[in-house]
Write a structure and sequence with these properties.
- With 377 residues, the chain is α/β, with parallel strands linked by helices.
- 45% of the residues lie in helices and 17% in strands.
- The protein contains 13 helices and 11 strands.
- The strands form 3 sheets. It has a 7-stranded mixed sheet with strand order 1-2-9-6-5-3-4, with helices on both faces.
- A hairpin with a 2-residue loop joins strand 7 and strand 8.
- Helix 6 packs parallel to helix 10 and helix 6 runs antiparallel to helix 11.
- The protein is globular, with a radius of gyration of 20 Å.
- The structure holds nicotinamide-adenine-dinucleotide and zinc ion.
Length: 377
Amino acid sequence: MGIRNINVRLPRASVAYDIQIGGRLEDVGRSVRQWAAKAKRAAVVSNETVFPLYGERVVKSLQEQGFDVSDHIVHDGESVKNLREAERLTAAFSAAGISRTDCVVALGGGVVGDLAGFTAAIHLRGVPLIQAPTTLLAMIDSSVGGKTGVNSRHGKNLIGAFHQPRGVFIDPSTLRTLEPRELTAGFCEAIKHGAVSGARLLRRTAAFLQHHPAREGFEADADANELIAEHVRFKARVVRADEQESAENTGAMSRKILNFGHTLAHALEKVTNYRRFKHGEAVGHGIRFATYLSNSLDLLSDDDVELLNDVVRRAGRLPGLAGIDRERVLHAFSSDKKNVGGSLQFVLLNGIGRPILIDRRDIPDELIVAAYERLLD
Ligand SMILES: NC(=O)c1ccc[n+]([C@@H]2O[C@H](COP(=O)([O-])OP(=O)(O)OC[C@H]3O[C@@H](n4cnc5c(N)ncnc54)[C@H](O)[C@@H]3O)[C@@H](O)[C@H]2O)c1
Ligand SMILES: [Zn+2]
């Protein structure tokens, strides 16, 4: 099972980093040594679920490379993504002597990655960051691209910084301990990548799910490494084209296309107080919604709708929509933070792999209602 290496080179001078896929966490130290050659200390940030599973081997591997290691364990859950926790962490980094040339290693899912990444961005105005993602979502999405941040009481991810990592170390065997629902959630984001990138990645993801049903847990074989690598390549390509999600960039490689399926997802999460759905599960519904909407605008064929529905089904069972007030969901669209200048842009599909941005005001209300109703069938 070969290790895959993907290099992310950004147009901004001198920013390039490697994403290594297929290595084992026992060996993470060697890569960190390469990526942060001058570091004497490493601050490992993880949570109370992931650290007991993988912390020891990471710490040992870093120590073998001569790092003086401190660990910083946060509670499990989205609620740690806040400014107070970032402040507490940066104080802990100071106490552990983390200087500008030392490094922070984020070991965990997207929550740990975003929080540790943001703290690495603000500690001493920026210290080297290494991401070691342990959820599928974090591997194919959040660890790549340099977006870091925390939530505020006004909404999710409203405070943050772009802080590109020095390197990303992906050990897919860690997915074996992931809960099936988290796997489903990650696969929904993978399907999103496929839908906006093209038939090849979508079919590849579908084929993988057929041979490795998400409900049976994750098999970290060569096939899995290659699938993750393909998704990382795609995300890296989008990030390269639009590093900081500029408002003007609305083209086919704008970072905004990654919001496919997300308008409805954010609304569903909001009206259920972030309790009923894992984010990726809400994205699963959102993908189907955007697909139906594209279909009713004559942009997407019935066959492609069927294909996308079928892949989402294979990703696993999504919590249902029963009992959710449709009007509240539709109303929640208007407060989506992806509003640009007061208007909401839907990412729709003009065919698989051909995302387009359409202003909410250009879509008749009846079509939006009808697309939502089709979700309930
Ligand atoms: N920065 C970005 O570009 C970006 C992109 C997408 C999402 N995000 C953020 O990512 C977060 C969601 O990330 P997530 O889906 O990874 O959730 P998460 O970090 O909460 O992880 C999900 C659950 O799995 C557990 N876990 C993690 N790895 C495990 C493993 N190997 N074995 C067993 N359990 C494990 C975690 O403790 C947690 O309970 C959100 O906060 C979202 O805003 C950021
Ligand atoms: Zn998402």
